[in-house]
Amino acid sequence: MDKVATRDGFGKGLLKLKDRKDIVVMDAGCSDSTRTQEFGRHVPERFFNMGISEGDMICAAAGFAKCNKTVFAAGFSCFLLGRTMDQITVSIAYSNSNVKIVGSHAGLATGEDGPTAQIIQDVAWLRSMPNMTIISPADGLEAEKATIALASHIGPAYLRVTRPAVQTITKDEPFVIGKAKALEEGDDVTIIGSGPILSEALEAAKCLRETGINPTILNMATIKPLDVEAVRAAAAKTGAIVTVEDHSIYGGLGSAVAEVLSEQPGSVLERIGVKDTFAESGSGPELYKKYGLDAHAICDAAKRAVQKKVTISA
Amino acid sequence: MKSIEELQSLTKELREDILTTVHGAKSGHPGGSLSAIDILTVLFFDEMNYDPAHPEKPDRDRFILSKGHATPGYYSVLSKAGFFPKSELATFRKLESRLTGHPHPKIPGVEIATGSLGQGLSVGNGMAMCAKLDNLPYKVFVLMGDGELQEGQVWEAAMTAGFRRLNNIVAIVDHNKLAQDSSVSELKDIEPIDQKFKAFGWHTIRIDGHDIADIKRGFEEARSIDKPVVIIASTIKGKGVSFMENQLGWHGKAPNDEQLQQALAEVRNG
Fold first, then answer.
1. Which residues of B touch A155 (CB under 8 A)?
2. Are both A155 and A185 inside the same structural domain?
3. Dist CA A34 CA A28 (whole Å)
C-alpha cells in the first residue's frame, strides 16, 4: 500500500468537508506544508492565509468561531503552539471557541530541520489546557477520518500531524474521538502508542513474538480525553504496559498512562519517548534509532516490562 | 438615539456603578474603567446595534473589551443596557458569580474572554472577516488600552486589518497615558500612534474621550471611512474622582468606605 503522511490525510479530510459552509480554514503561511493549500484552491472564499503571525491567526480563528464557524487553523506545530500558548489559553480554551488547531511537523520524525522544527513538548503543553481535546493520528487514513470527526466535534481541539509519508496501519472504520483501538491482541504485554510511531510498535511486535511474547498493540489516537477504561483493561489483562510516542517522555501519552496506572497498582510500565533532551539534525529513522524510539528500543522495553512483571509476581 | 445630555447623565450613573461595584468586590480596576466609561456609554447607548433580549443575533454589532481589566465599566454598561440585572453587579469577582474579574462569554453580551492584553484586535478582525464572508452589515468595535499597544500582537492585527482593508472594524485606544506601574511613555513610548497606524493602512481620528459630543463625532467620522479606523481617545485615568485622576495607585485597587462616599459625591456633582 502507498505510504501517506498524516498531514496529507488531514488535507484530504478537509477537501471532503469543502461543501460544509460553516467550515473556515486558516494557515500561518505554510499551506503547502500543512496541506491546507488544496482546500484554499477549491474554496478560496473560506480559506484565509494569515501570514507568519500565529498569535494573530489563533485569535482571528476564535473570532470566526464566535460567529458560528467551525475553524481549522494550521501551521508548523513548533511555532503554531510555541508562540501562542497565551492566545490558545484565553481566546480558544477558556473562551471554548470551536477551533481545531492543526500542528504539522511534530516530533523527531520531522528530521533534518533539527530541534527548532521538531516539537516534542506540544502534547505536554496542551494536556494541561482545560477544554482541549488532543488527537494524534497513526497514519494518513486515520488523520483523514479524525479531521472529519473533528469537524462535527464542538469545542477546542489539537490535531497533531507529521511530515513523512508513513505506512497505513489502521482499518477503514469510523474514527471515534476518545476511544482506543487494538491493532493486535496478545496477553503478555500491551504497547500503547499514538501517532505514526505505532508502525515501529508493530515491527517490535514481530520481534517479541519470535521470543514467545505476545503483545497487544493499542492505538491511543486520542490522547485527551484519555481512554482510561482501555488503559485499565490493558493493565488488568497483560500486567505490563509500554507507552510509545514521538514526544518528550514528560507530559505526553506516557505520563497520561502513568497517571492512570499510579491509581491502579499491579502493573509495570516502561515509557518510550524522547528523554529530557533536544535532538539534532538527521533523517527520521536515524533519529529514531539514536534517541531510542525505533522498533528495536520498543522491543527491548517490552521485554524489560515482561521481565519485571515476572519478577514481581514471583 | 440619545441626546448629549441624556448620555452625560448616564455616564454619571455608570461612574457610580463602577465605584460601588469595585468597592463591593474589594478589588478590581477603577482607574481604567473611569477613563473608558464615556466612550463605552456612547458606544452602547448611541452607536452600536444590538438587542439585549437576543444577544446572539447574527447581525449584531460586536464589541470586544481588549483591555479586559476594565470590567467594572463594561459590566456596568452591559447591565444598564439590559443584558443582565443591575443587582448582579454586587456579585462581581465573587465565588459562583458569572461576573468574573475579567470578561468571559458566559456573561450575556460578552463575545469572548479577554484579560491578556493584545488579543482583542485579532479576534475583532476574525469577526470582521466573517461579516464579509457572511455578507452581514455588522461592525466590530475593539477597545484597547494605550499600554496595550506595547504588545506585538496588536501590530500583527493592525497589519491584518490594513492589508485586508477591513472597513468594518473600529479600534478605540483609551489613551489615559498610565499603565500599571509606570506612565506609558516612560515604560516604552508608543508615540507617534497615528503614524504607526497610518503606516499599517488605517484611518486615524483623535478625540477627547471625555467629551460626549466629540466621541459621537469620532464614531460618525469612522462610519464614512472605507478602511479600518482607529479612534485615539485622549482620556484621564480615574476620570471624575479627584484622588484617582492621573494616579498610578488606582489602576487595580478598591476604594474604602470613606473614599467611596467622597468619590460618589464627586461623580454625582461632576
1. none
2. no
3. 9
Do A95 and B113 lie within an 8 Å CB cutoff?
Answer: yes
Phi first, then psi, for residue A143 (nearest 5°) are -65, -40
pLDDT in tens, A264-297: 878 999 999 999 999 999 999 999 999 999 999 9
Instruction: Indicate which CATH number applies to the domain containing A106.
Output: 3.40.50.970
Long-range contacts of B80-85 (CB under 8 A, 24+ apart): B80/B10, B80/B13, B80/B14, B80/B17, B80/B44, B80/B45, B81/B44, B81/B45, B81/B50, B81/B52, B81/B109, B82/B52, B82/B53, B83/B52, B83/B55, B83/B107, B83/B108, B83/B109, B84/B108, B84/B109
Tell me if B102 sits within 8 A of B113, measured CB to CB. yes
Residue A12 is predicted with a pLDDT of 98
A21 close to B (CB below 8 A): no
Distance from CA of A32 to the nearest CA of B (A): 21
How many structural domains compose chain A?
Answer: 2
**Does residue A287 fall inside a structural domain?**
yes
Q: For residue A7, what are the contacts with CB-CB under 8 A and spacing of at least 6?
A: A33, A34, A35, A104, A105, A143, A161, A162, A163
Q: Out of B119, B159, B163, name the one closest to residue A91 (CB).
A: B119
Is A153 inside a domain boundary?
yes
Are A247 and A139 found together in one domain?
Answer: no
CATH number at residue A204: 3.40.50.920
Residue spans per domain, chain B: 4-269
Which residue out of A27, A56, A99, A129 would a mutagenesis test of the B interface target, given it has the greatest number of B Cβ atoms within 10 Å? A56
Answer yes or no: is pLDDT of A1 > 70: no
Chain A contact for B130, CB < 8 A?
yes
Q: What is the CATH number of domain B4-269?
A: 3.40.50.970
Residue A174 lies in a domain: no
pLDDT tens for each residue of A80-124: 999 999 999 999 999 999 999 999 999 999 999 999 999 999 999
Within 8 A of B125 by CB-CB distance, chain A residues are 56, 59-60, 63
Q: Please indicate if any CB of chain B lies within 8 Å of the CB of A62.
A: yes
* pLDDT score at A265: 78
Both A190 and A284 in a single domain?
yes
Residue A168 domain-assigned?
no
Q: Nearest CB to B105: which of A53, A67, A95?
A: A95
Among A129, A160, A191, the domain-final residue is: A160
Nearest-by-CA chain A residue for B160: A50
Q: Does A69 touch chain B (CB under 8 A)?
A: yes
Classify residue A155 as exposed, middle or buried by CB count within 10 Å of its CB (0-12, 13-18, 19+): middle
Domain limits for position A259 = 181-313
Q: Do A53 and B105 touch (CB under 8 A)?
A: no
pLDDT of residue A173: 92
Claim: this prediction has a pTM higher than 0.80: yes
Flag whether pLDDT at A17 surpasses 80. yes
How many contacts, defined by CB atoms under 8 Å, are there between A and B?
A: 100
Nearest CA in chain B to A93: B113
CB contact under 8 A, B114 and A90: yes
Contact B159 A60 (CB under 8 A): no
